[in-house]
Amino acid sequence: MLEDLLDDPHLADVGFFSVDQGFPAEIRRALPQPVEFGGIARVADKPPGALGADSRAILGDYGHDEGEIDALIESGAVRIAGATA
User: Fold this and answer.
1) What is the domain range of residue 78?
2) What is the reported pTM?
3) Rounded distance, CA 42 to CA 71, Å?
């Protein structure tokens, strides 16, 4: 079964599901990149940003002005990093 892979001794030995340093403690498993390309150096994964860290930038990229973004945040429709729910 698929869930048996999580406890597979070989995958544990090779660190298949290992989480790199710097990732939040809530992330207990990670998957390696599924492909590698010749001539392209492997780049380590980066830890995810905080929830909402990029909300303003993304909404701005899609044409929302600051007033619209503020209204979305105030209504609770959008979260920004560091804000309490």
Assistant:
1) 49-85
2) 0.55
3) 41
